[in-house]
Amino acid sequence: QPHNHCIDCHLLSLAAMATLKAALSGRRVILLRHGNTAKAEVDAERELTEKGRGQCEKFREAWNDVFKGISNVLASPVKRTMGTAELVAGPLGLKISPVEDLYFVKPWRTAEMKAADADCGYAPVRTYIERHPGVHDKAAEVMAAAVASTAEDLVDGDVLIVGHAGYLSFLALKVVEALVPESGEAEQATWLEVAKTVVLDANVGEVCGFEISPAGARYLPNPESTDFAAAKSNDAFV
């Protein structure tokens, strides 16, 4: 039974990746971490601070060209991510679609994930993979499937996804896989290595993120630097 269950999970993963590829084909995808927040008794209630709102404005101004062509906005459904999405994409007049499984405080977040998050804190995703290999695979698959599930609702144009530190990078690796251009095997391998390295080595700051398209991947820093020493990890805010 357990063996069959693993096969079923693998097939579901393949199906989700195929749907993700179809949904994102030919598009640019911008993945953005939310802005600076205050502490709260419940994680989902954390709201953007004045600094966080300012970070959103600065990012939008600095990367104005990046927002040209965006016609779909997906966000984790909690206050800080929805607020970030509204501030960076609001001027575009676009509807923001909350996606439940882009929020990491879910039943799929295991004790092993929590322990890895506490151990690594705010760090490049490469650190997580090296110290805790495989621990966040389920998170990446669930988030990729959640984005894939929006396929029928996406209109023509590019996609902005607003999410959370750490988990955003695991999703970005799946988006990279989905957007690898059609070409020879060697060319694809080189493209994947270069694009994944961008994601793996970035310690994603507040209102910073990635632009991923068939042309490649790049990190989009915020003009205002993030104080990574202010808190060890997401869980330090509750």
Radius of gyration in whole Å, from Cα?
17 Å
Average predicted local confidence, pLDDT: 91
Number of strands: 6
Tertiary shape: globular
Biggest pleated sheet: 6 strands, mixed
Residue windows where pLDDT falls under 50 for at least 5 positions? 1-11
Secondary-structure-based class equals alpha/beta
Separation of termini? Answer: 39 Å
Q: Characteristics of this structure?
A:
238 residues, alpha/beta, six-stranded mixed β-sheet, globular
Characterize this entry briefly.
The chain has 238 residues and is of the alpha/beta class.
What would you say this structure looks like, in words?
This protein is of the alpha/beta class and 238 residues long. It has helices at 2-24, 50-62, 79-89, 111-120, 125-131, 137-148, 167-178, 185-200; strands at residues 29-33, 70-75, 96-98, 158-163, 209-213, 216-220. The chain has a 6-stranded mixed sheet with strand order 3-2-4-1-5-6, with helices on both faces. Strand 2 (70-75), helix 3 (79-89) and strand 3 (96-98) form a beta-alpha-beta unit. Helix 1 (2-24) crosses helix 6 (137-148), helix 2 (50-62) packs parallel to helix 3 and helix 7 (167-178) runs antiparallel to helix 8 (185-200). The protein is globular and about 50 Å long.
Set down the secondary structure blueprint.
Blueprint: H1 2-24, E1 29-33, H2 50-62, E2 70-75, H3 79-89, E3 96-98, H4 111-120, H5 125-131, H6 137-148, E4 158-163, H7 167-178, H8 185-200, E5 209-213, E6 216-220
Parallel strand pairs: 1-4, 2-3, 2-4
Antiparallel strand pairs: 1-5, 5-6
Helix pairs in contact: 1-6, 1-7, 2-3, 6-7, 7-8
